[in-house]
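Progress note, project year one: complex with iron/sulfur cluster.
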Amino acid sequence: MLEKNIDFEKYNQMKEAPENEPERQYYFIAKAKELVKKESERLGRTLTCAVITFGCQMNARDSEKLAGILELAGYELVEEETADFVIYNTCTVRDNANQRVYGRLGNLNSLKKKNPNKKIALCGCMMQEDSVIEKIKQSYSFVNLIFGTHNIYKFAELLVTMLSNDSMIIDIWKDTDKIVEQLPVERKYPFKSGINIMFGCNNFCSYCIVPYVRGRERSRNPKDIIREIEELVADGVVEIMLLGQNVNSYGKNLEEPITFAELLKEIEKIDGLERIRFMTSHPKDLSDELIQVMKESKKICRHLHLPLQSGSSRILKDMNRRYTKESYLELAGKLRKEIPDLSLTTDIIVGFPGETKEDVDETIDVVKKVQYDNAFTFIYSKRTGTPAAAMENQVPEEEVKENFDRLLKVVQETARERVKLLEGQVADALVEEINEHDASLVTGRLSNNTLVHFKGDHSLIGKIVTVTLKECKGFYYLGEMVE
Ligand code: SAH
Ligand code: SF4
Ligand code: F3S
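Model obtained:
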């Protein structure tokens, strides 16, 4: 696995931590390993640790990096919150994400009372908000370590500080221009992986807190991305998901600028890699070049997540999305024409300040015209510090609820029709896991992101197999493997 062959002897013999990254973190992993070993010996058992993710796929990828370090330090990774060390990797995109964290923290406190050795850490997007830190200091003083999104690369160093101190450690940075490569990672799935191609966001959609908690847009060097994918493929990965808040603006701020489409062409050449996915595409930056590359590619999956947010040009303007209903429809039309088997999914917000019933009708009109395979619908959540939070005409809850239900009905109807289109056809599926409800079945993912369940066993996991899509069950298929 990636970067797991660290020479701990070498780092143990050093008197002081090296200044350079990632060597500095390797030094602290070696130190943490000593501390964890000592504690394990004292307790006469292996220490356990759980990393719990609350946010998006980028958040989940960060959790894999934390897990990679913890595993090297000697912790056994588990899922239960009874673990000796629990980390919450938080999200703050909507208020309900925050509320979930506070709710579960109360529970952690009771567990800590039963296990006095227990340590608790909080990190991720929520920690970049001053008001959150204040609240935790006041009401959740049992937390041992708090850090943010910009200094996650120095987790090993913070871990050592936490293990050698009893007081609450808080380290939050306002921003960073740094990208640290070659830190260890522990993947959740052996056969597929997310890969950050960029960090941060420069778009400042008026409702969104992400640019404030994730900082300015920074692209990784294409060479580093290719190297990481090659290592992953050598380690058994067949499907990758390129991650960024707006992948279509990848590479613009690099010393040697390169487009996202060009990056995809380079990735396509990697032998042994079977499938390429990416997330998220901002409609304003989706180029004709990208459409051509997707069309000609054998590896890029037939799925595009293209967040609409609203179908009303007036609301889109207030949201600072920088496209109109008409230009979005034109783009969707072009995609459908050039790549007919492409499935389109989207995100929609209901209840943005000033949104009327008529605005929601416009959104519904777009849903009907585009025919999404799936749409994630969210109720607008006011985020402190964003321009939309200061807008006066916030929509009453009841009205939002009505509009939301109306939209959801159309979204579900159209998605059902779209997904059904493949019934009876034969398609390739990457088998991901044993079915949760019926252990005689496995669950596979089609190129267009639809799930199919069919008879199979463990030996199929991680393999791409051909399946007949027998019966559409609304949003997924029951199928049969073609021998
Ligand atoms: N960078 C991605 C989205 C990241 S956040 C993009 O631009 O598409 C994921 C989704 O959360 C967004 O697409 C949006 O639909 C939703 N979202 C963001 N802020 C929100 C808010 N304040 N209230 C409700 N939904 C929000
Ligand atoms: Fe938020 Fe807009 Fe950036 Fe997406 S593009 S993360 S919605 S500001
Ligand atoms: Fe949430 Fe942060 Fe992702 S706010 S959606 S975890 S970038």
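The chain has 14 helices and 19 strands.
The mean pLDDT is 96.
No further modelling is planned for this target in the current period.
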